[in-house]
Write a structure and sequence with these properties.
Length: 500
Amino acid sequence: MSVTENQKSKWKPSRLFQTLAYFRVIPFVGSVKWLQKLFGEKTLLPADTSEVVLVVGANGGVGKRIVPRLLKRGYQVRCLVRDAKKAEKVLGKNVAIVTADITKPETLTPEIFKDVSKIICCTGTRVQPVEGDSPNREKYYQGIKFFMPEVVEEPQLVEYEGMKNLVAAAKPQLQPSNNKILFDFKNPTQDLKETWGALDDVVMGGVSESSIDITDSGAVFSGNVSTENSGGFVSVRTRNFDPPMNLLGSAGIELRVKGDGKRYKFFLRCEDKWDGVGYSYSFDTVYNIWITIRIPFKDLIPVFRAKVVENAQPFNPSQIYSYQLMLSKFEYNRELNPRFAPGFFQLEVEYVKIYGSDQLPKFVLVSSAGVTRPGRPGLNLDEQPPAVKFNDQLKGILNWKFKGEEVVRSSGIPYTVIRPCGMTEQPGGQALIFDQGDNIKGIVSRDDIAELCVKVLEENLACNKTFEVKGDKDNQATAENLQQLFNALGPDGKKSPLTV
Ligand SMILES: NC(=O)c1ccc[n+]([C@@H]2O[C@H](COP(=O)([O-])OP(=O)(O)OC[C@H]3O[C@@H](n4cnc5c(N)ncnc54)[C@H](OP(=O)(O)O)[C@@H]3O)[C@@H](O)[C@H]2O)c1
């Protein structure tokens, strides 16, 4: 944006240089980390927000597929197995292994659960063909050709007693947690004061001017916004965190603010570029009244200089480099902010928190379709999958699985119970079909179940829900398909059979 001769008197290069010096950047080029290093400045360290997920039954067909997916997503992972040697072969040497047997409560020590904030449990009674199986359990795993099955362990012990032991041991650690404050402006540290700085349209040739004043009574973002010189925005932004903050496991950001009735924007950035895509949310303030704003991560809009970026990467909560509050003349795509007025503005901020860890599942149980079918009146067993048909020979495995589910549902821990239909070793990537009411039959890839387990950790619509799932052989998985399925899930307690 050019600055014409008669406008130059208003535009102050000194303010541009102050901004650049503060953020250690050259606009449109990027951050200049070497400058920071040269002057021996410390980099800003994020608050400790990383999450430890415990995978119980990590050596199993589903468990071993969940572990790499969690790691890729940015979680810290701890694998609970019965056999550590087997785990080295199945999971490799670079994962954290703990050894325990859920049927033996004395093995479920507090160290196993230390710092754990989520559990995915995919244990199961060992089932095999009556004629036996190979050491790699190829017959059990393939899931397409039928073999007469038998249980090799007591289902009551693994599915029910084991679940009681696991839930009892995990519960103290999975209690609803206080939402963590990221920026506590009423108790500001020196670090906090040095983290936020003004970033106004002066970087584009404008003349607006803002500041953030942080005292014991909170932060005050105020100044004068002007549309002269094609300007029209003021903002305060944090310097980049290094390493970035990991907010996985939270549903969103909560702000406590008192404003002037204007509409502001809040931004998060998932890359360390100065001028890259920001994930934005607009919120209205109420004149002179303290209000709490919740910004769900899923409602963030990817924008580049106020234009919506259609094919942006999805918002990645595991990698937050910076935060920004803005007052802008523009809403999105050149639309005007309907509550904008040039001149003085003021927004007081008490805190910036993460919220919602209690609205997301903390305990994901991989159970099975069919758990409520044994003994159901009118059921034609000949049309049922083998686990239902042979439930009695399998020592009531499905009844014990259902009792295990009930332990989880009544625990008070936010949960999701996933009930897969017959699982196969076929590659994943199919669209899924969810159902509630325990009626569907079909097959589903273990890859897709593992993927689903990881997805539900970040899906509040899956919290405190039980549902069956099978693959849709005619369609490929898409994010939209999955979102529709989550949207349509009914709460537990009210049966809402559904096939999308
Ligand atoms: N097969 C199907 O078609 C199907 C369909 C729907 C649902 N399911 C259910 O889905 C779940 C996952 O299936 P999967 O195929 O991944 O099963 P899997 O390969 O047999 O894995 C089960 C895992 O649980 C572990 N485990 C068993 N008892 C344990 C105990 N007492 N303490 C600690 N760990 C224990 C096993 O450990 P080890 O490695 O030491 O044996 C194994 O790693 C199971 O509950 C299964 O019943 C299966």
